[in-house]
Amino acid sequence: MEKLIITAALTGAEVTKEKQPYLPVTPDEIAEAAYECYKAGASIVHVHAREKDGSPTQSYEVYKEIKEKIEAKCNIIFQPSTGGAVWHSPEERLQPVELAPEMATLSCGTCNFGGDVFMNSEEYIEKFAKRMKELGVKPEVEVFERGMINNALRLVKKGLIESPLHFDFVLGVPGACPGTPDDLIHMIRSVPMDSTWTVAGIGRAELPLATMAIVLGGHVRVGFEDNIYYSKGVLARSNAQLVERVVRIAKELEREVATPDEAREILGIKKK
User: Is the pTM value of this prediction over 0.90?
Assistant: First the structure.
């Protein structure tokens, strides 16, 4: 079985300091949180940038500052979000890809997202994929519903992304696919055999789906973007605390954890 890749999703676009006082917001806070997760065992850091007032931004300059600060601390894989917040335009969302990071997310369909709609038209999915390919950015295919897997496979047929694909199953978002064990199994059975996959369980789904992924040979995403609690009613003290728990469970289940360079090898990423 491959070593376990742990992704830390530090901030997201929706969580606020009022809900989670330990939420990293500034570039310095995000870089320090990334470093702490790296030391805990994460090999990828998934980043949403924020403005000084804490509001979500897709600003090229803010992402550039965050990227440089993280790279000054460690060699964790920097993976910016192209999802942004639901109100960002596609042009705004694409800005961090211009940094030519090693990876970036590629959402492959439209879905309900709580009380909002996360819009991803075929035109813009293809535009994002094409630009990532031009810049040598490894796409992480974000899947909120089963049909998004087929959308990704159509991109392969059109030559816009290349196999083997790496999927992130985001399960438990209100309005999208639930985060039950059956849902994860269905997703796994729906992707090509040569694919790699990560699961991001939202809220209470985070821990059980992470444990399933460890056992089933997948990979795991945890962090404040997906879940701000350590246990019922108890806020996590840091993103690193959530990473540490996954590392501990993996150790008990005798699954080794990948370093950033080992994750690059598993995902077929050439270090820039």
Answer: yes
